């Protein structure tokens, strides 16, 4: 027992280190089997899809259901049962024992055959289709391989199929082919032609065939698997081509896979395109340094042409393994369900292919929750033991334990879905560990909606430690998730400690907006000079609230403010705006200027006021205003322009008032710009003005050049030329005279 517990712990530690998932799961066959093996020992077993047949050392045969409960019991012999054989229907059974007895009988009929031989009978095999009348055949094996056939008058006629090579150790009948093993090797007989079609010799003749028996297993009707010692051969029965027949059998056998194993083979079975091998293991004890029996191994291998690849390997803790030999173990399997039975004298263990529930169990054990969740989602219709929600909750708990709070919170969205109770439970759990902030971003905001208290709890958490985060949540969350009044009060309380905090003020404005207290929101936005202020006014039609806040709006963004005011004259009149801006003439000018550009007549009563506003704040636009306005008092304008010495504007006003000569004089004297003077004279087209211009220019050579170049089309140039004093030096005179002559020719 001590050795056993040590080995168990060693194996467990190996499994812990291994990250590879096992392919099979194991459980003991209990109930009636436990009861039988307390007093007796198992010697052989045969598996049918409906039931099991177990033979014992005390000559009993038990029929069991798949849970191990006894359904029938037969006292066959006082000594060991060597083999039990069932036909495919499960209605007929053949039994042979160590005292030479052979029985073949119907489980549900009266037909029965008894024979006692003078030597132990090791094997018996009934025809797979024994239930049919023309297939009443079975073989037995001791020193000879005998075939019994029922013939005339229901008599059984024996015939020798093979003898002379020692005891027959194993036989397997499939379809029309019988395979058997004796001391020399394995033979296959074709029952149709009654010809032996192969002999596969034994590899290791040093091993005693009674201690290390041959294991045979038909994978299908034409594929035989042979395991003997530590050698495995997979043989394929093939049809011989007609041209190759001559005196040869019409079938032959080809060994398609052949490889050696690490341990001695006690049994084998197919699983898809792989093999399950039960191995007998010996090892050197660390304490005594003597070779002893270790736990048997069940391996799944992938056959290759000359070797194999191990897929999985499990050491099995069967009862009494320390006393067992290689011949004491057997492996039987149920083809339909991938069930493998490991039979030993004191124990029967069932190995099953692991299902999706087992796979999820293993993933959870290894803390691979993400993969477990994915596997459960893919197989949700087939899994019986696990629920997706339970796995998901375990995953969230695992992430929280690891400190991955953000990932845990993110997974809540997918796992908790629309379950409000679970959501609220998780939020409180996050609160307990001080991680409300982590889950805040992932809380549901509609379908489902949690209790307002949950959202308020999160907002209070942010308000205590993270104003920016608080502001973000207020912006992102719909205002109906929480009690607005409570949150507003909380923000107001915080503002008492920090009244200039822009983040809190901005958030309070948003809260007032949700609460439809737009006036208060507007005040805060204006104080903060917030870009959303105009959007707020438009959206909620707050023009009545801004009548006394026009200066604030203009200070914040005069361009946007003026556009808004002009677009909504019906709500806030021009007079009201001008009145509000009375103490801020620069803003008044911006408003009136834009109004004038939109419509020259709308603000006509303010045109006189605008003259001084333009003169003060925007001289470049004064002259265009004077030109375009028809309501501007010219005397007032002239007075202002003369006071400020605005020459161009004064010239324009003088000419508009009919005082062209004074205007020309200003151009000549103040601006000293001959081109502008000539341009002005051309516009007025008055002979007296030209005379004044000539008189003023006659003693100024640069002015004379300008006149000579431009006068030809309006005044006779001879008048000008006669007046030029003798000897006066005039720049570019020749060019000017040539131009005059050309202009004259053109006129002619």
Automatic annotation (TrEMBL):
PROSITE patterns (alphabetical): CHCR
Protein source organism: Oriolus oriolus (Eurasian golden oriole)
InterPro entries: Beta-prop_Vps41 (IPR057780), Clathrin_H-chain/VPS_repeat (IPR000547), TPR-like_helical_dom_sf (IPR011990), Vps41 (IPR016902), Vps41/Vps8 (IPR045111), WD40/YVTN_repeat-like_dom_sf (IPR015943), WD40_repeat_dom_sf (IPR036322)
Ranges in a coiled coil: none
Swiss-Prot/TrEMBL GO biological process terms: cellular response to starvation; endosomal vesicle fusion; macroautophagy; protein targeting to vacuole
GO cellular component: HOPS complex; late endosome
UniProt keyword DNA-binding, yes or no: no
SUPFAM superfamilies listed in its UniProt record: WD40 repeat-like (SSF50978)
Keyword Transport listed: yes
Protein name stated in the entry: VPS41 protein
Each CHCR repeat, start to end: 562-706
Family to which this protein belongs: Belongs to the VPS41 family.
Stretches with biased composition (Acidic residues): 8-20
Domain Vps41 beta-propeller: start-end pairs: 24-353
Region feature (Disordered): 1-24
């Amino acid at each position: 027992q001590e050795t056993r517990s040590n080995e168990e712990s060693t194996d467990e530690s190996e499994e812990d280190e291994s990250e590879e998932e096992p392919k099979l799961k194991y459980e003991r066959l209990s109930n009636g089997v436990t009861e039988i093996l307390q007093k007796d020992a198992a010697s052989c077993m045969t598996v049918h899809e409906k039931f099991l047949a177990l033979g014992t050392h005390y000559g009993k045969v038990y029929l069991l259901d798949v849970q191990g409960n006894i359904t029938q019991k037969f006292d066959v012999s006082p000594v060991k049962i060597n083999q039990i054989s069932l036909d495919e229907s499960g209605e007929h059974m053949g039994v042979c024992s160590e005292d030479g007895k052979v029985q073949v009988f119907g489980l549900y009929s009266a037909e029965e055959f008894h024979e006692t031989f003078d030597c132990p009978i090791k094997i018996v095999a009934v025809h797979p289709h024994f239930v049919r009348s023309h297939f009443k055949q079975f073989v037995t094996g001791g020193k000879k391989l005998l075939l019994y056939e029922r013939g005339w008058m229901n008599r059984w006629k024996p015939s020798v199929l093979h003898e002379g090579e020692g005891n027959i150790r194993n036989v397997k009948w499939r379809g029309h082919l019988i395979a058997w093993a004796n001391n020399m090797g394995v033979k296959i007989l074709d029952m149709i032609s009654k010809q032996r079609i192969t002999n596969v010799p034994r590899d290791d003749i040093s091993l005693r065939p009674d201690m290390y028996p041959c294991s045979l297993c038909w994978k299908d009707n034409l594929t035989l698997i042979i395991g003997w010692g530590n050698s495995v051969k997979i043989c394929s029965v093939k049809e011989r081509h007609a041209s190759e027949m001559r005196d040869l059998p019409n079938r032959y056998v080809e060994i398609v896979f052949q490889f050696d194993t690490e341990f001695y083979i006690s049994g084998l079975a197919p699983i898809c395109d792989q093999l399950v091998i039960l191995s007998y293991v010996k090892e050197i004890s660390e304490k005594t340094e003597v070779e002893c029996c270790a736990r048997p191994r069940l391996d799944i291998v992938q056959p290759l042409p000359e070797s194999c690849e191990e897929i999985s390997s499990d050491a099995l803790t069967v009862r009494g393994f320390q006393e067992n030999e290689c011949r004491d173990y057997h492996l039987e399997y149920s083809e339909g369900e991938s069930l493998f039975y490991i039979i030993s004298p004191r124990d029967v263990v069932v190995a099953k292919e692991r299902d999706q529930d087992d796979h999820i169990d293993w993933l959870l054990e290894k803390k691979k929750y993400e993969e477990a969740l994915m596997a459960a989602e893919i197989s949700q219709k087939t899994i019986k033991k696990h629920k997706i929600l339970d796995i998901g909750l375990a995953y969230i708990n695992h992430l929280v334990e690891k400190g991955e709070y953000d990932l845990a919170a993110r997974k809540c969205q997918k796992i908790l879905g629309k379950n409000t109770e679970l959501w609220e439970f998780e939020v409180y759990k996050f609160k307990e560990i001080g991680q409300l902030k982590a889950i805040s971003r992932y809380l549901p905001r509609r379908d489902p909606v949690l209790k307002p208290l949950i959202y308020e709890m999160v907002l209070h958490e942010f308000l205590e430690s993270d104003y920016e985060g608080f502001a973000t949540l207020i912006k992102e969350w719909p205002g109906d998730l929480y009690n607005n009044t409570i949150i507003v009060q909380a923000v107001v309380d915080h503002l008492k400690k920090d009244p200039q905090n822009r983040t809190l003020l901005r958030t309070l404005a948003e809260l007032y907006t949700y609460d439809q207290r737009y006036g208060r929101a507007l005040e805060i936005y204006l104080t903060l000079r917030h870009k959303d202020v105009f959007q707020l006014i438009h959206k909620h039609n707050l023009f009545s609230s801004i009548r006394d806040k026009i200066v604030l709006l203009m200070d914040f963004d005069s361009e946007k403010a003026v556009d808004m005011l002009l677009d909504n004259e019906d709500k806030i009149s021009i007079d009201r705006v001008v009145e509000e801006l009375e103490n801020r003439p620069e803003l008044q000018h911006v408003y009136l200027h834009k109004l004038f550009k939109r419509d020259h007549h709308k603000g006509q009563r303010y045109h006189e006021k605008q003259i001084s506003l333009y003169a003060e704040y925007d001289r470049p636009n004064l002259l265009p205003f004077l030109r375009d306005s028809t309501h501007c008092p010219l005397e007032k304008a002239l007075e202002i322009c003369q006071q400020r010495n605005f020459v161009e504007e004064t010239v324009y006003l003088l000419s508009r008032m009919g005082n062209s000569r004074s205007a020309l004089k200003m151009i000549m004297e103040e601006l000293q710009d001959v081109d502008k003077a000539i341009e002005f004279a051309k516009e007025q087209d008055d002979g007296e003005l030209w005379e004044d211009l000539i008189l003023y220019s006659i003693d100024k050579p640069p002015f004379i050049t300008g006149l000579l170049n431009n006068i030809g089309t309006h005044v006779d140039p001879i008048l000008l030329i006669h007046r030029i004093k003798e000897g006066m030096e005039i720049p570019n005179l020749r060019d000017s005279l040539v131009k005059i002559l050309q202009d004259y020719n053109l006129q002619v």
